[in-house]
Inverse folding.
């Protein structure tokens, strides 16, 4: 990517986790437009449905010549996520006005139109000579024939070669011998050959075995640190790493992990930042679960982010700690606590128009929490509120059918637990969606049902709001006398409520 010439800009995103197309499109628009220009239209874009964001992204790609790299695309190749991504790629292919180039990597090949302008390449790794040079650059000794043999067995996979080199270097440091390729035992080479032969085209299988070997050479403290760090999302530094372990840490400990090829390091000014490759992160996550350290790692991360929550917020970056706590709570299956932490900042994020960000959060919460059966009425009630909030977000984004389904799920839970006040709220929310769709008679029916329930529970403020909604519907139906009557009744309830 560094060598690619003639582009106005080079953009790269790594799909480490499943994301909605809208989240990707907003990121792409910001990158293409620049922060200053994007901020002027951010609130407008965040309320647009995916198809409009798709059009906007393509229009921006037409404005110049860009290189767009989409890494680990298989992560979003899921039934509920993939369609808008596929539409985006196919429209880019079919639009002769786009001079930009798209480079993607995926372990799951997809079917795309316009085959004449789209070329699939199997990434079989480095050429043998390049792989040999990579080992030599790492300082691995050995005759050319031995080096070539190992590169060919490893199919030139760069991470596999780097892990093997790091393992040899660590081994040589312990006994003060030369880091030479001959130190890979014949058993190691045989195992590697069997893995590559059996799983050709799936380098993750072979890398896992070499990572096992490299992991075994780390001292126990670094092994524990590495496993605990794997619960973190994105980049991290020394401060949060220290929060996850009891032993005193130095920057050198993290840099040792980088030299062992378990993390990537980057120096930004005077600050060192570290990040996992997705393949390594998946390997460590599996190992962490097997060694029963996952809960403590997440709890320590939660404690760190809790201690660093900002007292006030102006942008979504100021809510980063709450969002990280949310994800760690979800990983632990503590959905009620995940819901509670979002209560701190959700109203701010709604006011600032971060609906797309909230959409991802509440889709995850409701999807995962819904599978965890709880007999606690309070938890079931909170889950119904989460479904209602997701419905509201979809409604704002004009995704009305999805919004209806969310509110119906909320209504079902409220009736199940006997929450009459919540039931009235869900009926009113459904009325609002049908009102937005222009189905005014259905909206009237739902508002009337809501009114009946909330009068029963005696919620005067809620009653006033519903009467006002009825007034608005009859206004739309041009039945002005009825509209005026309901507006007056709503006003009376407001005044009585005072």
């Amino acid at each position: 990517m560094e060598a690619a010439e003639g582009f106005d800009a080079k953009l790269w995103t790594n799909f480490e986790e499943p994301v909605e197309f809208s989240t990707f499109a907003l990121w792409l628009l910001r990158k293409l437009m620049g922060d200053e220009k994007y901020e002027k239209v951010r609130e407008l874009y965040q309320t647009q449905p995916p198809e409009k964001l798709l059009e906007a992204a393509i229009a921006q790609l037409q404005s110049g010549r860009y290189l767009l790299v989409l890494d680990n695309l298989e992560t979003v190749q899921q039934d509920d996520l993939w369609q808008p991504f596929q539409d985006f790629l196919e429209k880019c292919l079919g639009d002769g006005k786009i001079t930009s180039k798209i480079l993607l990597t995926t372990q799951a090949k997809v079917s795309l139109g316009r085959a004449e302008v789209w070329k699939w390449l199997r990434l079989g790794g480095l050429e043998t000579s390049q792989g040999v040079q990579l080992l030599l650059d790492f300082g691995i000794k050995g005759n050319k024939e031995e080096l070539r043999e190992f590169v060919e067995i490893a199919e030139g996979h760069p991470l596999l070669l780097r892990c093997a080199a790091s393992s040899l270097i660590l081994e040589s440091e312990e006994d003060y011998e030369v880091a030479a390729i001959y130190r890979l035992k014949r058993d190691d080479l045989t195992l590697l050959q069997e893995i590559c032969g059996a799983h050709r085209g799936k380098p993750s299988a072979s890398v896992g075995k070499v990572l096992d070997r490299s992991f075994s050479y780390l001292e126990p403290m670094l092994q524990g640190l590495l496993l605990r760090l794997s619960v973190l999302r994105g980049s991290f530094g020394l401060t949060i790493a220290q929060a996850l372990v009891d032993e005193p840490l130095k920057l050198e400990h993290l840099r040792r992990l980088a030299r062992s090829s378990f993390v990537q390091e980057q120096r930004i000014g005077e600050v060192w930042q570290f990040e996992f490759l997705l393949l390594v992160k998946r390997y460590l996550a599996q190992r962490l679960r097997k060694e029963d350290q996952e809960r403590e790692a997440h709890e320590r991360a939660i404690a760190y982010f809790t201690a660093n929550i900002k007292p006030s917020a102006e942008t979504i970056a100021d809510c980063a700690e709450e969002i990280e706590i949310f994800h760690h709570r979800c990983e632990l299956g503590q959905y009620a606590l995940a819901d509670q932490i979002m209560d701190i900042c959700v109203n701010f994020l709604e006011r600032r128009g971060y609906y797309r960000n909230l959409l991802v959060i509440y889709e995850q919460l409701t999807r995962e929490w819904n599978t965890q059966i709880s007999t606690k009425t309070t938890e079931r009630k909170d889950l119904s509120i989460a479904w209602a909030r997701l419905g509201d977000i979809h409604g704002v984004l004009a995704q009305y059918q999805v919004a209806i389904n969310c509110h119906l799920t909320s209504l079902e839970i409220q009736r199940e637990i006997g929450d009459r006040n919540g039931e009235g709220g869900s009926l009113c929310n459904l009325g609002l969606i049908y009102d937005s769709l222009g189905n005014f008679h259905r909206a009237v029916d739902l508002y009337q049902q809501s009114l009946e329930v909330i009068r029963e529970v005696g919620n005067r403020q809620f009653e006033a709001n519903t009467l006002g909604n009825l007034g608005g519907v009859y206004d739309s139906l041009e039945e002005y006398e009825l509209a005026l009557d309901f507006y007056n009744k709503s006003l009376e309830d407001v005044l009585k409520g005072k």
Q: What stands out?
A: The chain is about 65% helix and 5% strand. The longest helix spans residues 377-396.
